[in-house]
Design a protein that fits this description.
The chain contains two helices and ten strands. By secondary structure, the protein is α/β, with parallel strands linked by helices. The strands form two sheets. It has a seven-stranded mixed beta sheet with strand order 1-5-6-3-4-10-9. It has a three-stranded mixed beta sheet with strand order 2-7-8. The longest helix is centred in the N-terminal third of the chain and has 14 residues, at 15-28. The termini are far apart. The protein has one domain (3-115): Sandwich (Hypothetical Protein Aq_1857, Chain: A). A hairpin with a 3-residue loop joins β3 (34-42) and β4 (46-54). Helix content is 16%, strand content 48%.
Length: 116
């Protein structure tokens, strides 16, 4: 069974992200959806954040819960975002999830990729 915690040191979920996740779940009409964050190689800085909605969690997922929403992070991706804050921004670049990541040595201009 996946690990679930309200205050895990690995990831904090900002209020804007909570609100956006709630709206996405509501618009999909599926209360079982969770936001999945994974890290893959790529992007202009070496690694990139991937955000998707997922109904299922696996035994390799860590489940972060705040404000009634759940965010899944697989064990492989967790070290890259340990201590990060998930936010949601709506600015001139558009509307998007962003990470305030203390592990990132540098990020690209749009904030979707980073290096460690």
């Amino acid at each position: 069974m996946p690990n679930t915690t309200e205050t895990h040191e690995g990831l904090k979920i900002g209020d804007g992200a909570i609100t956006r996740i709630q709206k996405l779940i509501e618009s999909e009409g599926n209360v079982d959806l969770k936001l999945r964050i994974s890290i893959t190689g790529g992007g202009c800085s070496g690694f990139q954040y991937n955000f998707s909605l997922d109904e299922k969690s696996t035994d390799e997922d860590i489940v972060f819960e705040a404000g009634g929403v759940k965010v899944l992070v697989d064990e492989t991706s967790l070290p890259f975002i340990d201590g990060a804050v998930l936010n949601f921004k709506n600015d001139l670049m558009g509307a998007y999830f962003s990470m305030d990541n203390p592990n990132a040595d540098s990020t690209c201009g749009c904030g979707t990729s980073f290096s460690v």
